[in-house]
Amino acid sequence: MATGPLANSTLQAEQRRPARGSEHVVARVGELKPGDRKIVTIGSVEIGIFYIGDAYYAVRNICPHQSGPVATGKIGGAVIANANTDWEPEWFHDGEILGCPWHGLEFRITTGQCLAHPKVRLRHYTVKINGDEIKVIL
Known about the structure:
The chain is mainly beta. The chain has one helix at about 5-15; strands at about 25-30, 35-40, 45-50, 55-60, 75-80, 90-100, 105-110, 125-130, 135.
């Protein structure tokens, strides 16, 4: 077993970084009402838990644009005008759009997809309900 400063920093990093595939209880069923969010920290990973409709979603609290705290942003919908709407503006995804508080980049919580840049996504985590426990799998 290694000793000294390097071993200590390696051990500290391992303690901060949860194991891949590990399950973590982040809330209890009924704690969040539809439209609510909760920010949790698991090791060194900060995650936003969202309750939309009848499902829970978990995203990393880091905006891919400039690492802003995206999960703390405003939640709303989006006005979309495209060929599907015959170029008429329509309101879509009410309560599913998350805007980064730093620069306003918007993401669909249910998919993580950025509205302005469809190839950019928030990091999503699997959410599992076990009895009354809401768990996130990292």
